[in-house]
Structures are given as C-alpha cells and as structure tokens.
Amino acid sequence: MNRAAALAAVAVGLSGPACQKQQEKAPVIDRVRTAPPAGSAASPAAEPASPAAEPASPEPRPIAELLAEAQRRGGGLLPSRIQIDYVGADGILDPAYARLEASFAPAAEIRPGDDPNRRTGAPVAKGPPPKVTQCPRVTWRGGRWETRQGGCTGVGARPTCTVQALWAKAIVQGAPPDAVAKLTYDGSLSPSQTAGSWRFAISDDVRDVHFRKSFPDDCRGMVEALDPTMPPDSALPSALDRQMIANAMGAVKSKVMSCARGDVKGPVRLKVKVKPDGTIDSATVMQTPDQDLGECVRAAILLAQFTKTQTGGSFTFPFVF
After folding, report:
1. CATH value of 242-320 in 3.30.1150.10, 3.40.50.720, 3.40.50.2300, 3.30.70.890
2. Where are the domain boundaries for CATH 3.30.1150.10 in the chain?
3. What pTM was computed for the model?
4. d(CA 264, CA 261)
C-alpha cells in the first residue's frame, strides 16, 4: 500500500462509528463559569453578613449590693477608703458614668493577747496575729470588677452610714434631691477617733450647683447594709421611721411657716401617706384654725421627699402657728 492509500485508510477509521461514539460521550463545554469573589452579590452561595451583636449595656445597680460585693472581695479586711461617684438619693448607680472604688486595710490594733472573736472566758491564743502586708483595692466601673493587691495604708473601719442615710442628711442641709453625688468615706482612724467620716459633694458648673458637706459616720445600726450575706433589697429600710419623717418635714418647714397669715394662731395637723418611692400619696388637713392656712400648709407638705422604703408609711404631723 502506497503512502497516499495508508493516509486515506486512517482518515476513514477516524470518521467511523467507534470514533463517533466516543465523541458523543465527550461533554460539550460551551462556557467557563468561575466563582465570583467571596461576598459578591453574584455568588449564589454568598450569605449576607450578619450584623455583629452589640454587647448588652450593664443595668443600674444598687450601691448596697455593690458595697457588699466589694466587702466580700476585701478578703476579711475593713474599708480604709471608699469612693462612690454619681449615686442618687435612691442609692442607685448608673453604670454609664458611675464608679465605686474601695481600699481595704487591717482593723486598728487591739490589746496584745486579746481577740475580738474570742468569747469571754475562753482560752487566749498564744502569739500576736500575723501582720498583713498586702491589701486589696477593689474597683467597679461599667459593670466590671477589678481587684488589685498593694501595700496596706492606715487601718480600716466598717462604715455605719448607708448612702440613703447620708443623702437624707444632705437633703436637710439643702442638697437637690434629684441630683447625683460623689461620696468619699475615710475609715483611717487616728488614736483619738472612734468613727470615720464622709464627704458629700454635688458639682454642676453648667447649672451653677455646688454643694459640699462633711458628715460623721455615726449611723449606728445601719452597718447591716454592708453585710455580704444579706440580699440587695435589704438596703431599703422596711418602713418610715421618726428620723426619716423629721428629716423630710424639716426640709419643707420654711415653706410651711411662710404660710402664716396675720393674727391666725393655732395648730395645723395633717395626715400624710407616703409611697415606697418616697413621694407623698395623699395629705389631708385634720385640724386648722383657718381653711386657707390649712390648704397652704398642705401644698407645702406635698413638696416633701422622703427616704425610699420597702412599704412606705403613714403619720400625722402638727405645725403650730
């Protein structure tokens, strides 16, 4: 077979049935599909990105609850200094700008060989108690706690006044009851001191409000509010007491006495019902020498703001003209 005939035979073989069957099985590619960049709208597999979840803002917290937690973190030591920034008369801290910082130290030294926890008549432990060289500083801000250890400064003393009690004192002295205040407790006692002290300050340059007072830490019987074993609600007194009533009435006494009318003399007695939030629910004139005088006194009484309690209370109160 010459070369031309051989080439012709190969051409016929390639166009035969066997070759056509292989061509039918081969896939036909009419276009090339490439995956678009990740996140492109053209990609059928691309999912829209979910927005990142914002962290929940911390809730306003009762200062008594935070003080109890700070005391727990104090490791059995006592506060030598407490700084409370921006707390209201209701004892609530707003975490948006409020802060609590407590420094702790050992209690003042006691007579050698004595132990305040020892029952009278029990054996006396031998040797002095170990010296404390590291004391914690506890900070709460923005819903977060931080505890740092450092050298001990001074001595500590457990405060006896609650924030609400200090606010009640300040309101009687003219503090605006709807403000927020900075409170500083100093528990580092000198040998001649028997109690710590508090500084109470409200400062607002824009509204020209500047109030500063110092109070002794003399609220005996209120120390339980710092007991970490008690629930947060225990920060509120159960009901109004005589001191709370006297404080609130004293704050509006000048307005009441300005109701005096000429020669009208005699007592004006009112029955007052106070809600748990410290506002007056009702005030009724029970006795008055003059109807207009009685109504004026009633209007002044309605301005009174009481300490928040768990149940509120009712009382009668006389003003003598």
Report:
1. 3.30.1150.10
2. 242-320
3. 0.49
4. 6
